[in-house]
Amino acid sequence: MKVGIVGASGAVGLEIIKLLQERKFNLSSLTLFGSKRSAGKSIKFRNKRIVIKQLKSSSLKEFDLIFFSAGSKISKQYAPIAAKNNCIVIDNSSAFRMKKNIPLIVPEINGGDLQRNKSKIIANPNCTTIISLMAIKPLYDLSPIKRIIATSFQSVSGAGNLGMEELEKNTKNFLSKKETGKNRVFERNIAFNVIPKIGEITKNLYSEEEMKLHNESRKILSDKKIKVTATTVRVPVLRSHSISLNLEFKNKVTLNKAKKALNNFPGLKNIDLGDQASFPTPIDSSNKDECLVGRLRTDYSIKNGISLWVVGDQIRKGAALNAVQIAEYLQKI
Ligand code: NAP
């Protein structure tokens, strides 16, 4: 299988390379693409250094699979060209997620859709949506959910390599009492601060990130009735997103059943729900494949409610790992 990665030098691209190596992904060649900025630099893969090529439409021929991870604009321009050349595209951007005939996949949740839909382009969901749904789906299987209230605490690496650089720069300047100057990524200083806005504000005054959680959850769960209301917040954490979830079920779900379902769900290992005070933090889930759940409790204020806390490495399960798992799933069918 001839594999390519567009956006190889980015936070997600680098993680895909790492995962292909770690998981011994079956491939015959790996080609890396980037912009003019990274073309000519090289990245180590399986004891060899691979030189990054500048992305051009004419280069997207004769691939079996390309991971796109260079933002929506690049995906919109180049992914259809690769797909036309009979190549499978797994796209990390938001470009195709809500398109009718494009599957939006979290393998543990709706991997089966890949057998029904033979689209050449497959969309990887938004990172906060993936991590939230990893905790929600096992509970959703116990009873339909009427409403989800989600509040996210999203790390700066969600905005890529530059997001991490900006947190470090803002922190150094804050501690040395220097003026920070104009930021490139975040609208406000992120050091010792939180920013309750991710993406642009839409017509209904929710942010784009908040609406992704609503729209994409409905598509992945194939449930047009479920209501999702979110507040998404950027926090000064380098890696891993955290989400506080409040779920209102149609039927009663006991804590024991909820614990059992969460413990048995693939990708949710290492959960310690025996101790009600247990709470995984973003540092606990960084560089890990699994999403971690804690603070599971019955919501005393409504009839059938449960609250919980989930953390997950958004560069891994929220992006690169999920994309590689989709590719592995496709290799098996
Ligand atoms: P990033 O760290 O900023 O990396 C962006 C990558 O895109 C770099 O490799 C860059 O290459 C490449 N690129 C930019 N312009 C290009 C061009 N004209 N031609 C070819 N390559 C170009 O961003 P990221 O965080 O990895 O995000 C990549 C995608 O994944 C985005 O769509 C993002 O929304 C999505 N995503 C990210 C996360 C996350 O946690 N970071 C999670 C889920 C989804 P150069 O080095 O050459 O500029």
* Uncertain spans: none
**Relevant CATH superfamily of the largest domain:** Dihydrodipicolinate Reductase, domain 2
Number of helices: 10
**Per CATH, what is the topology of the largest domain?**
Dihydrodipicolinate Reductase, domain 2
Roughly what percent helix? 25-40%
Largest sheet: spatial strand order: 5-2-1-6-7-8
SS-based class = alpha/beta
Helices and strands, in N-to-C order?
EHEEEEEHEHHEHEHHEEHHEEH
Count every beta strand, where a strand is a DSSP E run of 2 or more residues.
13
- On the 0 to 100 scale, the average pLDDT is 96
User: What is the C-level CATH assignment of the largest domain?
Assistant: Alpha Beta
- Terminus-to-terminus distance: 15 Å
Domain count: the total is 2
Q: Give the name of the CATH architecture of the largest domain.
A: 2-Layer Sandwich
The largest pleated sheet is described as: 6 strands, parallel
Give the cofactors and ligands. Answer: NADP nicotinamide-adenine-dinucleotide phosphate
Summarize the model shown:
Helix content is 32%, strand content 22%.
List the topology elements.
Layout: E1 2-6, H1 11-22, E2 29-34, E3 42-45, E4 48-51, E5 53-54, E6 65-68, H2 72-84, E7 88-91, H3 107-110, H4 113-116, E8 121-123, H5 127-140, E9 145-154, H6 161-175, H7 208-221, E10 227-234, E11 241-249, H8 255-264, H9 282-285, E12 292-298, E13 305-312, H10 316-332
Helix pairs in contact: 1-10, 5-7
Bound molecules: NADP nicotinamide-adenine-dinucleotide phosphate.
